[in-house]
Amino acid sequence: FAQGVELQNFMGWCVCSPTRAMLMTARHPYRVGTGPETGGELSRDETTMATGFKAHGYRTGIFGKWHLGDNYPMRAHDRGFHEALVHGGGGLAQPSDPPPGNHYFNPTLARNGKFGITHSSEIGRRYNYAAYRDAVECLQAVETDIVMVLRGVAA
After folding, report:
1. Does the annotation mark 67 as catalytic?
2. Which residues in 57-72 are b (16+ Cβ under 10 Å) and which e?
3. Per-residue b/e over 135-145, b at no fewer than 16 CB within 10 Å?
């Protein structure tokens, strides 16, 4: 992070789409159309950070989870990202994540709307958003896993 930004005290939402909308727009999720009762798509009228950075000459990329719309014109590459390498829906192996049988180990990802695993080799000024699935998730461990971790059995 020598020339980057790290959020150290960010208050998000208890579910993913509203939190991601907050990060992308710096606005409250209800103002941008992504509250839990309104669905997961970011309002078409909102400007994303990617759009702002792109307008100032940055190459923009998202790698991981977008979850603010899977169809045109709501996809990450429709909303300011030059490069979007993401899975569908809210998580790998969820019903909204094609293709069938997708999983976290060697997943099939969508690059700019087309499924296939690829990478970008372009260089220059960049705004990259690495989106991890569980960063905003309220998780509950089962008792057997808790016991294994406390005993030092699980890594």
Report:
1. yes
2. ebbbbbbbbbbbbbee
3. ebeeeeeeeee
Closest to 45 measured CA to CA, from 73, 71, 18, 70: 73
Q: CB under 8 Å to 27, separation ≥6 — which residues?
A: 21, 46
14, 16, 77, 82: which one is catalytic?
A: 16
Q: Residues 31-89: pLDDT tens digits?
A: 888 876 666 788 888 999 999 999 999 888 888 888 888 888 989 999 999 989 888 87
Give the pTM.
0.69
Preceding peptide of 99 cis, ω within 30° = yes
Q: What is the pLDDT of residue 129?
A: 64
Write out pLDDT tens, residues 94-108: 767 666 667 666 677
Residue pair 73/44 in contact (Cβ under 8 Å)? The answer is: yes
Decide the pairing of beta strands 114-115 and 110-111. antiparallel
Our answer to whether residue 82 is catalytic in this structure is no
Pick the catalytic residue: 14, 28, 56, 67? 67
Residue 41 is given by DSSP the state P
14 secondary structure, DSSP code? S
